[in-house]
Amino acid sequence: MYFLKPFNEMVDNFFNDSIISYSNKPFRLDIKENDTEYQIEAELPGVKKEEIKVEYNNDQLSISVEREDNINQEQKNYIHKERKYASMKRCFYLRDVNEEAISAKLENGILIITAPKSEKAINRLIEIK
Predict the structure, then answer these.
(1) Which domains are seen in the chain, by residue range?
(2) What are the tens digits of pLDDT across the range 25-42?
(3) Does the pLDDT of residue 6 top 60, yes or no?
(4) Cβ distance 21 to 85 under 8 Å?
């Protein structure tokens, strides 16, 4: 019955991926760096800002997402009702960050985090005497 395997996978994927599955598909992440700051962009379509947690601790920035999706129908004698809980966390190392100046905003499903570098981290030309 090998020929049924792709069909079964397609059906499973349809029902399992109707809402983004954060448990097995990490969200996409881009990290840019210039002389003064890091900029992180994470794709989080359909996620509310209340479901996102951003932390910086010991030179490590972490982005966590926790969602609980309930499909509630106000009907008696329902024959099908679903609940889904999913969580995902991405962590990465950013050194020499000014912790007090980190900012984050969520725009159109994109989480944008700006992490300015501390004064000691900014590159400068050293004059030779």
Answers:
(1) 26-70+82-121 (2.60.40.790)
(2) 578 999 999 989 999 999
(3) no
(4) no
pLDDT at 17: 43
Backbone angles phi, psi at 90, to 5 degrees: -120, 135
- Measured in whole angstroms, the distance separating CA 64 from the mean position of its chain's CA atoms is 6
Residue the block writes with tokens 């397609």:
10
What are the contacts of 22-31 at 24+ separation with CB within 8 A? 22/65, 22/67, 22/86, 22/87, 22/88, 23/86, 23/87, 23/88, 26/88, 26/90, 27/63, 27/65, 27/88, 27/90, 29/63, 29/90, 29/92, 31/92
DSSP codes, 81-127: -EEEEEEEEEEEE--SB-GGG-EEEEETTEEEEEEEBPGGGS--PPP
pLDDT at 7: 54
Residue 103, beta-bridge partner list: 114
Give residue 128's pLDDT.
73
Distance CA 99, CA 102 (A): 6
